[in-house]
Design a protein that fits this description.
The chain is α/β, with parallel strands linked by helices. Helix content is 24%, strand content 26%. The strands form four sheets. Strands 3, 4, 5, 8, 9, 16 and 17 form a seven-stranded mixed sheet that branches. It has a six-stranded parallel sheet with strand order 12-11-10-13-14-15, covered by helices on one side.
């Protein structure tokens, strides 16, 4: 029998999120049923709820930074048991047979991954609904283990903000001796600082906002450069092996390219729109520099990240909210009024029944 679930949903691009009941599928033999405890609030949730990317299918139940406990497992599941603390990130399935999936990079599935919400289940064609809800049913191949050492509330954003910054740092082999800069100090940027520092890099924050030095250093930065100050930017020329650019809106990449060493990489993880103003190709050619991009991470590297976080005591800086406050949280997020990630206490759903 399908599971009747309480959650919060957007019914249109212009209506606030509100209580919504929907059905989860009957568990399949390879499924894990998870009672959700906490769900992080990602900027993508707001974009999807308001159809900013022009692909939302309503109702939308957002949420892809999910922490919960296993309440049931299918007959073919051997890696999880009832009571385990687990997580679910941005994807809940993929084709499982293309070159990307075979390499453990399901986020680049050539047939397209199945998104945790605002997606379509590959097997039954039903819409997927996310973590702003009391329970979720997910194939065991897309569930990750979460150590009891970690605060489950602060671990929730690791499933998106964490893996989005971890994956490129690992791909470009950031470690001791690397000189890394992070552009932007938000939900992604603060995790980039923490990870780069824990991996052994010398870490710089680029920011447009004066007065962030103490905060940046608390999060792992060794240096802070005010990117609106030409003198500071000139002093940073040809310094960095790798720049992690977390800014989600169009901005000038050229000043940052000038701070890369020979063979340096500027990696975009936040920007999904056209680059404006245009990139000066000479800055790329004359320094053999690269502009690259990276999207979330595969399941194996998400597990690797969570294990690293447990070993090094790394979690996100969060503000816990009740689900009834989600619309206010969205408005605050638009004003960058959060340090650095909202997390919903799903127990508050009981008050919304």
């Amino acid at each position: 029998m399908a599971l009747s679930i309480r959650g919060y949903a957007a019914q249109s691009a212009t209506t606030p999120l509100a209580p919504h009941r929907f059905e989860r599928r009957d568990p399949r033999p390879d499924d894990v049923v998870i009672d959700i405890l906490y769900c992080g609030v990602c900027h993508s949730d707001l974009h999807q709820a308001r159809n900013d990317w022009h692909g939302s299918v309503y109702p939308v139940v957002p949420g892809h930074e999910i922490i919960g406990r296993v309440s049931a497992v299918g007959g073919e599941v051997s890696g999880f048991k009832v009571g385990d603390m687990v997580g679910v990130g941005c994807i809940v399935d993929s084709c499982r047979h293309c070159a990307s999936c075979d390499a453990g990079l399901e986020q680049y599935c050539e047939e397209g991954p199945t998104w945790t919400y605002n997606g379509t289940d590959r097997h039954d064609g039903r819409p997927t609904f996310g973590g702003y809800s009391e329970r979720i049913v997910v194939s065991d191949k897309f569930v990750v283990r979460v150590s009891e050492k970690l605060d489950p509330r602060a671990a929730a954003p690791l499933l998106c903000a964490g893996i989005t910054t971890w994956s490129p740092l690992r791909h470009w082999n950031i470690g001791k001796g690397s000189k890394v800069a992070v552009v932007g100090l938000g939900g992604l940027g603060h995790m980039g600082l923490k990870f780069a520092k824990a991996l052994g890099a010398d870490v710089t924050l680029f920011t447009r906002t004066p007065g962030k030095e103490a905060e940046a250093r608390r999060l792992g930065a060794d240096h802070v450069v005010l990117s609106t100050d030409p003198a500071q930017m000139e002093a940073a020329a040809r310094q960095f092996d790798f720049i992690l650019d977390t800014v989600p809106s169009p901005h000038d990449l050229n000043p940052y390219l000038a701070t890369l060493r020979l063979d340096g990489v500027l990696c975009l993880v936040g920007l999904l729109e056209p680059v404006e103003p245009p990139v000066q190709a000479a800055a790329v050619i004359l320094g053999r520099r690269s502009i690259a991009g990276s999207a979330i991470g595969g399941i194996a590297e998400t597990q690797e990240m969570l294990d690293f976080c447990a070993e090094h005591g790394i979690v996100s800086d969060i503000e816990v909210i009740d689900i009834q406050d989600i619309n206010d949280a969205y408005e605050r997020m638009l004003k960058s009024d959060v340090k650095y990630r909202f997390v919903i206490d799903i127990a508050s759903l009981k008050q919304a029944a």
